[in-house]
Amino acid sequence: MTQKRFENFINGNFISFRGKRFFSKNPADRRKVLGSFPQSDRKTVNAACEAARTAYPLWSRTPWPVRADYLKKFGQEVERNEKGLARIVAQESGKALAEARADVVEARHMLEYAASFGRNAIGNIIPSEVPKKFAFTLRVPIGPTASISPWNFPIAIPTWTWAIALVAGNTVVFKPSEDTPLCGQKLAEIASRVKFPKGVFNLVHGNAQTGKALVRHRAIKNIVFTGSFGAATWIQTESIRLGKLCATEAGGKAGIVITKSANMDIAVDAALKGAYKTTGQRCVSASRFIVDEEIADEFTARFVAETKRTIRVGNPLSPETTMGPMINENGLKKVERFNAMVRRAAKIERSGITILLDGARARKGMLRHGNFLTPFIYRVDKYNSRFLPTQEEVFGPHIAIIPYRSGQWRQAFKIHNDTPYGLAGAIVSNDFEEVFDFITLTSEIGVRYANLSSVGAEVQLPFGGLKRSGNNKPSGAGILPHVTHTIAATINFGKEVVLPQSLGKK
């Protein structure tokens, strides 16, 4: 792809930027530059936020069905451009092409779902204890909203954060990840074609400093964020200081519990999908397989064998590729650090750690120009809750198999919960009690699956985590309460003022 200059989208126009710029590179071949983008400064952020503030009064009073029509058109544009968008996602994020297409399809689903709110009931009629009083609730927008999104779902997750916000009457300033700015740019280009009123949808490119300026801007009333725990904590703290609202999702350490009643075919398939989709760089990627010791040897042998047979590292655009590159050098080095921790521990005889597949950088042929890494799999026969690689989010193809005492599935659930994160997880079991306990009682996670993998969220369900994984404010279908205020209203149709709680006319 020929290098090209791209610009911010502010107040309905792409605005030429004369300051510093940064480059987006293909993680599968760092020699390929996909474009240059503005390193937006405070002045630029201010222009976008002021545009959103100016547009807000009229947009917030626009009827819900009219606002929804813009999102419907947005979804239609995404569908028309599905193949082209998928190729850009694959080139810029490193996802295998089939996954990249799923990213785009998920965005379309979210836009269609958001548009449906325009003609749904929003609010409730509530009985009053006083005759001739009509009580009800309605939802009103919060105000100009900052949407700060990650690179790993560069088309889908942005729509999770701002599609329903827009339908609900908020205006938006969207900052895509600096790792996938071209994907964000394509969304802005679609917004331009959809012809939102000026200032309703704005895009600013940039790094963490750009994001901080956006969060702190006086016009921004609400922040919706997906990213790292550190950034989420800063946003939460800053929002409290400035009197703003925020909804944050901040990573995870997903596990899959596999009991001795499990269907082994499902267990292995669920593990492969959870471990290697997006090269293990999803916040819901499964990096811990907690397996009944009675079936641990069989599961381990099959999982390692299937990894060797099915995981083909390579160019994301190739139909043969099942796992693309890491997003950048920093992400690659982080996985290498955790791999090194496990190697050191494995040298200690009493650790109970055995390396089953020793992952490393892929340096052969054209792969040497990209951020490629092969899977790293190890077994932990003596579980230690202080062992960092089984506790912390690694964000790459780094997998631990952890056997537990046969039949002691509650012990397995404790191991599953033994991490500071609480986003997603799964159980593979044919025992009703085990599944029921995991799903309804024991799990300390926000997204729970049974006889499935830890990946595969659908837009019509809430998505959000507990503990360090977020501030318990889901995105997707669950975001409406976090981009609106619920208003209680009561209308008196009588000729007297009658109070509740038996106060009568007094």
Automatic annotation (TrEMBL):
Transmembrane segments: none annotated. Keywords: NAD, Oxidoreductase. This is Aldehyde dehydrogenase domain-containing protein. Gene3D superfamilies: Aldehyde Dehydrogenase, Chain A, domain 1, Aldehyde Dehydrogenase, Chain A, domain 2. Coiled coil: none annotated. One of its GO terms (molecular function) is aldehyde dehydrogenase (NAD+) activity. Residues 20-485 form the Aldehyde dehydrogenase domain. The keyword Oxidoreductase applies. SUPFAM superfamilies: ALDH-like (SSF53720). It comes from the Bacteria. InterPro entries: Ald_DH/histidinol_DH (IPR016161), Ald_DH_C (IPR016163), Ald_DH_N (IPR016162), Aldehyde_DH_dom (IPR015590), ALDH7A1-like (IPR044638).
